[in-house]
Design a protein that fits this description.
The chain is an all-alpha fold. The chain is built from ten helices and no strands.
């Protein structure tokens, strides 16, 4: 098939290429995190959680549009609300899909896995919508740059924020219901703060901030991996015998 025909098709139907470019980074991270789980989760639940994350974007966008229209001149506030909407929606959908089912989430690490999978579904669809204009305009150089930045930036941000929420839920896995609620609320606050800080630095800062922010995100991922390893070795008796662990 001639190259011109392919390019014309992609420009006429930009969703296809944008979706592929949005999906590939997510699949790479998905493979990475799933191989960290020594007791693999059911493929059906992983798929549903991923699709739930994608679906969350459709609920988030109209709400964020309303926030943009009514809180136009208060950047910090609007970004905080935007982050809260995304984090709550990602969590809410994956909660009803997987987290509330104790037959599915039968060990602490499961909460982290399903929240990260949901985040990857979210970022796949978000990246797709972000890349569509570059495909439509035929600006493929800009498309490559943006897709790579989304891979290192937005994808890692969603992994980090949802992963932080998952870590807090995992640490409370063997605790009382009240403690689980406290840990869950704390995890949500941490996720929203991380998300808001990232957006504010990217939007309001100069180019020098980009390297600083991406560096901080990578450090956050390293911390997440270390905490993930800690959660793997959580035991019920350890939690009850030593409340400080």
């Amino acid at each position: 098939m001639p190259l011109d025909t392919v390019l014309n098709f992609l420009q006429k139907y930009p969703f296809f290429l944008a979706f592929i470019l949005g999906l590939l980074p997510a699949l790479i991270w998905l493979w990475f995190w799933l191989k960290e789980d020594i007791h693999p989760e059911p493929a059906k639940m992983i798929t549903l959680s991923f699709l739930g994350g994608m679906l969350a974007v459709l609920f988030v966008l109209p709400i964020q549009k309303l926030v943009y229209e009514y809180i136009l001149n208060q950047q910090a506030l609007s970004f905080t609300i935007w982050a809260a909407i995304e984090e709550i929606m990602k969590f809410g959908l994956v909660y009803f899909i997987a987290l509330r089912n104790k037959k599915v989430t039968d060990e602490p690490v499961d909460d982290i896995i399903y929240l990260i999978v949901s985040a990857l579904g979210f970022v796949t669809f978000e990246n797709t919508l972000f890349l569509i204009p570059s495909v439509s305009s035929g600006d493929f150089l800009n498309l490559i740059v943006h897709s790579n930045l989304r891979f290192i930036g937005a994808s890692l941000l969603h992994i980090m924020s949802s992963g932080a929420m998952g870590i807090m839920l995992a640490l409370a896995f063997y605790r009382t219901r009240t403690e689980k609620i406290i840990y869950g609320i704390s995890g949500m606050i941490i996720a929203i703060v991380l998300h808001t800080a990232f957006n504010l630095f990217i939007i309001s800062g100069a180019d020098r901030n980009i390297f600083f922010v991406f560096g901080m995100v990578w450090i956050g991922i390293v911390v997440l991996l270390l905490m993930f390893e800690k959660v793997k070795h959580l035991r019920e008796t350890k939690i009850f015998n030593n409340p400080l662990n």
